[in-house]
Amino acid sequence: MRALDAALHPRDGVAVFNRVYLAVTEAVDGYVDTGRFADPHAAITLDVRFARRYLDAVEAVADERLPPACWRPLFQFRRHPGVRPLQFALAGINAHIGHDLALAVVDTCRTLGCAPAELEDEFDTVGDLLVSLEERIREDLMPGPDLLQIADPLTHLLGSWSLDRARDATWTAARALWALRDFPDVAEEFTARLDTAVGFAGRMLLTPLAEPGSRP
């Protein structure tokens, strides 16, 4: 992630999300070092499986292969001049939380030989960290003075998406996928539909907008 940060143009939409995710990863490391996780080994395993799915999407695009559907809007619109930095950040969070985290929970359960319920504390701690960072991200990247934000279409667009709701849906999806582990055909179809649905939400988050104060 640090190598990507150094290689990408700062305004590149992938770079915007990458900076956010790098901050998340560093914060998780800090939580591990200070004993904030009940099971540090489980937390590290989940963190690594989680990050790997984002890096796999980056590598797929670099190799001219299609990434998962949830990531395609971000890569498609990464240089669009009408998309604001906050949109890029939240579209990446949407893809990574809405799709990748559910699969990472299942990957971790298989690796550690446990059920999702045994990872719930780690999942909740990471989720709480993400919520706190999302609030900071919105404050840092929301453009314009406060008086203009009410009229800014970005305010209305982003009001339709919630990390808390996405996190709750992800936990349900992870439990469903675990329950379907003995039915691979159904699990594969469920995963594909989850991927598509999260990608659709990401495309909406990346709707190009006029700059604050400009004429439509």
Helix amount: over 70%
* Main sheet attributes: strand count, strand direction, barrel closure: none
Number of strands: 0
Question: Stretches where pLDDT falls below 50 for ≥5 residues?
Answer: none
The coarse silhouette is: globular
Distance between the termini: 37 Å
Number of helices: 10
Helices and strands, in order, run as HHHHHHHHHH
Mean pLDDT: 88
Percentage beta strand: under 5%
In angstroms, what is the radius of gyration? 17 Å
- The computed structural class is mainly alpha
Could you describe the 3D structure shown?
With 216 residues, the chain is mainly α. It has helices spanning 2-7, 13-33, 40-62, 72-77, 85-112, 120-141, 146-149, 153-158, 163-179, 184-205. Helix 2 (13-33) packs across helix 5. The longest helix has 28 residues, at 85-112. It is globular. This is DUF5995 family protein. InterPro entries: DUF5995.
Features:
about 220 residues, mainly alpha, 10 helices, DUF5995, DUF5995 family protein
Write the layout of secondary structure elements.
Elements: H1 2-7, H2 13-33, H3 40-62, H4 72-77, H5 85-112, H6 120-141, H7 146-149, H8 153-158, H9 163-179, H10 184-205
Helix pairs in contact: 2-3, 2-5, 2-6, 3-5, 5-6, 5-9, 5-10, 6-9
